[in-house]
Design brief:
Blueprint: H1 2-15, H2 25-32, H3 38-46, H4 57-71, H5 76-88, H6 91-98, H7 104-114, H8 117-132, H9 141-158, H10 165-181, H11 191-194, H12 199-204, H13 207-217, E1 227-232, E2 239-246, H14 251-261, E3 265-270, E4 278-286, H15 295-312, H16 326-330, E5 336-341, E6 348-355, H17 360-370, E7 374-379, E8 382-383, E9 386-394, H18 401-416
Antiparallel strand pairs: 1-2, 2-4, 3-4, 3-7, 5-6, 6-9, 7-9, 8-9
Helix pairs in contact: 1-3, 1-8, 3-5, 4-5, 5-8, 6-9, 7-9, 8-9, 10-13, 14-17, 17-18
Length: 417
């Protein structure tokens, strides 16, 4: 913990060094405009100081930070900021990695908890420094994009930019049409596909994704064969894969199995079903080893092989049985499964904590199929050897307390095998 704390403070300090501004340009610019850097350094020193004492380390560390800051004569405003940062240092990463950032209610709730722009900037800087100081495996371009998106959206919201659902959807549609014109695609070309999409689709995908999907599907909205397309991820790392096929009950399990077989992990999955019964799913996949593959060959392989597997609907392969890390072998993580209602009461939030291992996501997907649970969104968060995955799900089985207990028990059993 001490080593991690010093790394976090070092990362914060690097944001303040002009010669290192190329590493994280946004963080460096925010740091240069931030008054009294010592506030951030103190928050970095105290954010994990109470780990290992038992109890909530954020609350225990908050008391230590308050006492230290008062004894050393900080102003009341700075004391409260340091204390708030220590207490809330996990809030931004949890929101970005586990919740739906396209949901206005999620952003409203996060903005209300942050309260003002100075808190938002300081929390963003501390969060980036904290995640980067945990392990080289934990930080990647996808997490960087999620945090930056949450920061920018919340900053606009705190500045009074509160769009309604209708205006937000219209803005995305207009921006997508503008992008389509760059490919010489007429405005009315989108009508056939868009007539099969509802408000949820346009709110869960940004303008770039909508334009990409429309460009590829506007002339094959009724495609008889699966359509699989991949591209370099806009996040700057990994690939983004789009799958368009007539809906199948075990589709998610098949896709997870395929990506596991080629050695790629899923960072995020957006699952959507059109009005006329097609699955339009988007996956962000990453190479866990951070190798630099030949993406052109890989894209061609994914587009052909995955489409063939979905077309033939062969029996599901057993989950991958790869090597478990040495650390996980000696210090196993007991699986935890929780199911809670979402904020609107429309879906259930399935949270899974387990040791990261090959085949983990396939095991979850198989349980969803077995209990007829529908997947809406998946957010996959890996912290070293620890997986903390969140799924937005629904289904009749989740409304029956006895069925929920059976589902949880089976899922835990699968994760322990």
């Amino acid at each position: 913990v001490d080593e991690h704390i010093l790394k976090v403070v070092r990362n914060l300090r690097r944001f303040a060094v002009p010669e290192l501004a190329h590493e994280f340009p946004l963080c460096s610019r925010l740091m240069s405009e931030f008054d009294r850097h010592e506030v951030l350094y103190l928050a970095g020193l105290f954010h994990d100081i109470a780990k290992g004492r038992g109890g909530d380390h954020s609350l225990l560390g908050k008391a230590d930070a308050r006492r230290f800051c008062r004894e050393h004569g900080l102003s009341a405003e700075d004391v409260e900021l340091v204390v708030w940062l220590v207490e809330s240092h996990l809030m931004m990463s949890a929101t970005a990695q586990k919740q739906d950032l396209t949901d206005p209610e999620v952003i409203d709730a996060f903005a209300a908890r942050v309260g003002n722009e100075r808190r938002l900037i300081s929390l963003y800087l501390l969060t980036v420094a904290d995640i980067r100081g945990t392990s080289p495996k934990v930080w990647n371009a996808w997490k960087a994009k999620l945090l930056e998106d949450l920061f920018r959206i919340t900053r606009r919201r705190l500045g009074g930019d509160a769009h309604s659902l209708e205006s937000s959807m219209q803005q995305r549609q207009d921006a997508a049409k503008a992008k389509l014109l760059l490919y010489a695609i007429k405005e009315d070309a989108s009508e056939k596909l868009w007539s099969q999409l509802d408000t949820a689709y346009f709110l869960r995908h940004d303008a770039d994704e909508i334009a990409w999907h429309t460009r590829l599907l506007n002339y094959r909205a009724e495609a008889a064969e699966p359509v699989v397309k991949a591209r370099l991820s806009p996040a700057g790392e990994g690939l983004q894969v789009m799958i368009y096929v007539r809906d199948q009950k075990d589709l998610f399990a098949r896709i997870c199995s395929f990506f596991e077989r080629i050695g790629y992990s899923i960072a995020e999955a957006k699952i959507y079903t059109t009005r006329h019964g097609y699955a339009l799913d988007s996956f962000q996949i990453m190479d866990p080893g951070n190798k630099q593959p030949h993406y052109r060959d890989l894209i061609g392989y994914i587009e052909y092989e995955l489409a063939q597997r979905l077309a033939t609907q062969a029996p599901l392969e057993p989950p991958a049985q790869g090597r478990v890390s040495r650390l996980l072998k000696h210090f196993p993580i007991t699986p935890e499964v929780t199911i809670t209602p979402d904020e609107r009461g429309q879906f259930k939030v399935l949270s899974v904590i387990a040791g990261d291992r090959p085949g983990l996501l396939s095991r979850v997907a198989r349980c969803l199929v077995e209990f007829h649970v529908n997947l809406n969104t998946a957010k996959i968060n890996t912290l070293g050897d620890r997986a903390e995955d969140v799924f937005l799900v629904n289904g009749d089985a989740l409304n029956d307390p006895k069925a929920v207990v059976r589902f949880e028990s089976e899922l835990i059993r699968q994760l322990q095998n």
